[in-house]
Amino acid sequence: MPSYREDAQPDKIKEQVLQLDSLDNFKPISNSVLVRINEMHDEITYGTLTLKLDTSFEVGKHAANKGVVIKVPEKFVYSKTPNINTSDWDTDIEAEEGDLVYFDYLSGIECNKVECEDKLYYILPYHTLYILKRKNKVIPLNGYVLLEPVIKEEGYKDFKFDREQAKYATVAYSGSCNKKYRNKQYFDDSAIKAGEKVIYGKVSGLFLEQEEHSSFNGNKRYRIIQRRYLTGIIEKGEID
Predict the structure, then answer these.
(1) In this structure, what DSSP letter does residue 240 have?
(2) What is this structure's pTM?
(3) By the 8 A CB rule, do 32 and 22 touch?
């Protein structure tokens, strides 16, 4: 029988973790995905030294943001009327059982959580998933693209440093377009492909991972942003 931890407090409902004896009878609904969390980002390694972290300080910097898909909903439910269980866009469910997915860390902090056989699971809205890794494939979800920042050397003589160029980057990975948005002014341009240099607008795109816990693709850092926020493709030449 499911039960809540005894230490769960009514005024801290987001911290409650439901205890389940088995996941066999658990069925995700309302666009929810069941994700097993394998890394809690509660330690960091420098060479041979491993440090335990107090994750209650700067929670967002150390929040879990990836896990393995265990169960997905049968279909993605889209509604023109805003409500808590639907997203602002219509898309296909591409994630499958066994995929490694990266997700919005804030959703991970706030979502319902389940423990079963000493393993922790997050029940996440599908629209909070950024990308998935399936063997050697990287597939952005929900209309997102992964951007590789353009780095240029700046400075003078002996005082030189690398600086990320603002507002433009190279598309490292692109996935499927969203079908439509609740706000009709938005749409996904299918011309945006991997290798394109693009300009983005007021939405700058978050980093996929915090630097301290970066592990994706050889610890390279990528920005994650939806296609709808890209404002141009640079077809030739460079930007200074």
Answers:
(1) -
(2) 0.84
(3) no
